[in-house]
Amino acid sequence: MDNIEDWCISRQIWWGHRIPAWYDKEGNVYVGYDEIETRDHYKLDNRKLSQDNDVLDTWFSSSLWPFASMGWPHETDELSRFYPTSVLVTGFDIIFFWVARMMMMSLEFTNQIPFKDVYVMR
User: pTM to 2 decimals?
Assistant: First the structure.
């Protein structure tokens, strides 16, 4: 993949996965799986934290699907058995956004191409 451009990862929409970032009153940002894990990781006291109101863009979160749905970043049995796969079947209307993002994220995070063939349905 050539000429990859930055992609906005968040939007102010009501569906999607909330951005896992928390802020304190001083403007510090803490990132983690959930608030409990974040407090533990950063060894935070009982200061008030507010989670980011934006959500990950659906194109962004769906681009992680080929490997995140099987336990990545951990080396799970499912990941080693089923990833990468051989075929992706998708619709014509989302071919660029979804497939390109899945390839880009897979190459970035796993160093592998997620599928060998793409079948486009009309």
Answer: 0.61
